[in-house]
């Protein structure tokens, strides 16, 4: 499943003419493109889908959504290690060094 997940902007920089941000999704940090929200600032929250910040979101709504996603295991599904999840579904332990570099 591919979710639109709220995240908090930690840092913003321009790379090759594109405005990019480091965004925290409840403990998982990813790089996100800010081209659709050029006025988004450090400390603000946005809904992110497939690496693009799409809509500004207030802090309370963002935290409630992240809590709910965490309770439902959806953050692990969205951001977890694919090798570990496949091994867990197959009922085997992941091979050390594979998929967790």
Explain the overall architecture.
The model has no long low-confidence stretch (mean pLDDT 81). The chain is α+β, with helices and mostly antiparallel strands and 101 residues long. It has 3 helices and 5 strands.
Brief digest:
Helix content is 28%, strand content 36%.
**Strand/helix succession:** EEEEEHHH
Question: Approximately what portion of the residues adopt beta-strand conformation?
Answer: 35-45%
Structural class: alpha+beta
- Which residue ranges are poorly predicted, with pLDDT under 50 across at least 5 consecutive positions? none
Radius of gyration over all CA atoms, rounded: 15 Å
Largest sheet: 5 strands, antiparallel
Calculate the terminal CA-CA distance, rounded to whole Å. Answer: 23 Å
Q: How many DSSP E strands?
A: 5
Keywords:
five-stranded antiparallel sheet; 101 residues; alpha+beta; 28% helix; globular
Secondary structure elements and pairings:
Elements: E1 5-15, E2 18-25, E3 28-33, E4 45-49, E5 52-57, H1 59-71, H2 74-79, H3 82-90
């Amino acid at each position: 499943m591919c979710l639109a997940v709220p995240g908090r902007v930690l840092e913003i920089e321009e790379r090759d003419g594109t405005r990019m941000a480091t965004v925290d999704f409840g403990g998982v940090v990813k790089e996100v493109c800010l081209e659709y929200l050029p006025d988004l600032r450090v400390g603000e929250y946005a809904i992110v889908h497939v690496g693009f910040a799409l809509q500004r979101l207030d802090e309370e709504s963002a935290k409630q959504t992240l809590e709910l996603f965490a309770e439902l295991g959806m953050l692990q599904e969205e951001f977890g290690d694919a090798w570990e999840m496949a091994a867990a579904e197959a009922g085997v332990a992941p091979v050390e060094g594979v998929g967790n570099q």
